[in-house]
Amino acid sequence: MIRNQNGTYYTLFPILEKQETDKLRKESKGIAEVILPFIEPDILTLKDNLKEIGCEQNTYSILFSYVLDGLIWNIFEKHKLVDSLVITTEKPMWSGYFWAMTPKYPFISGTNEYSDDNCYALHINWSDAGGAVMDSILGKSEYLYAMMEEYKKHKKVKQDSIIHNLKNYKVLDNRGNIKIPIILENSQNRIYQLSLTISEKMYAKFICTTDVTEITKACKFSNNTESTVILWHEVMRALLKAIEEKEIIKKPVIFSDPEKANLENANELMFITTKG
Predict the structure, then answer these.
(1) Which residues, 6 or more positions from 236, have their beta carbon under 8 angstroms from its beta carbon?
(2) What integer pLDDT is reported at residue 90 of this predicted model?
(3) What are the structural domain ranges in the chain?
(4) If we measure between CA atoms, which residue out of 74, 63, 99 comes closest to residue 241?
């Protein structure tokens, strides 16, 4: 993270001052404006498909956590734009990038994933802006892991203690049935296929509108891989902002107005993926 050179310490990761950050965000906004018209119809179709199964309120978190900050990285990796971040016995440590920028982006979210294998995963879209309900559901990690173990075995939850601790979040019902979207990653699952289509379209537009090498030079990043990682994080935030401004989808109430959020709103931030 830092190096000592003659008694002076230097960071080993890029730090962008306001002028550099503003320039990068202007570039990111332009890229997002090119991408959005090509994915807007698919986002609306994704929302409609989720509405059909009573999960329209999960559209935002699936779009962010599964598409913008999920499947797209697999495509970048496939085309050698980024390195694999999969932890293996040969590479047991996380090998991503660190960077710092000022000013801080007004709204930042991320994804927690609960999984102990490559077949099943519970995803939770989180943000520091999520307030008490966000803190409450993240404090249930023990039961969320246990829920996934039960789901793998029985396709529902049978343990009363898990049901008791999670039912108020509408993650499951009183009978242990899962009440959040379950995405089967196969060719028959419409939500998965739409998510993949959106990711592929974003990649295609990103590549044809972005000079990553030029950004590497301008921002003095260490290489094009680092540039792609940092730039895409800015592009995804610009995309989300534009999508919200056009009212294509709405931000979950836990993020938009945490004081008005109830425990049951936590299910809007969650979904399960399985290799099916």
Answers:
(1) 64, 68, 69, 72
(2) 60
(3) 2-274
(4) 63
Nearest-angstrom CA–CA distance, 128 and 255: 9
Strands 270-274 and 182-184: parallel
Identify the residue with better confidence: 106 or 78. Answer: 78
Cβ atoms of residues 210 and 204 within 8 Å: no
Tens of pLDDT along 233-265? 999 999 999 999 999 999 999 999 999 999 999
- Write out the chain in H/E/C secondary structure: CEEEECCEEEECCCEECHHHHHHHHHHHHHHHHHHHHHHHHHHHHHHHHHHHCCCHHHHHHHHHHHHHHHHHHHHHHHCCCCCCCCCCCCCCCCCCCCCEECCCCCCCEEEEEECCCCCEEEEEEEEHHHHHHHHHHHCCHHHHHHHHHHHHHHCCCCCHHHHHHHHHHCCECCCCCECCCEEECCCCCHHHHHHHHHHHHHHHHHHHHCCHHHHHHHHCCCCHHHHHHHHHHHHHHHHHHHHHHCCCCCCCHHHHCHHHCCHHHHHHHEEEEECC
264, 169 Cβ separation under 8 angstroms: yes
Supply the pTM of this predicted model: 0.92
How many angstroms separate the CA atoms of 160 and 150, rounded?
Answer: 11
| Residue-level length of the chain | 276
Query: Beta strand 100-101 with 2-5: parallel, antiparallel or unpaired?
Result: unpaired
Cα–Cα distances (Å) from 272 to 114, 121, 234, in that order, read 9, 6, 26
Residue type, 174: N
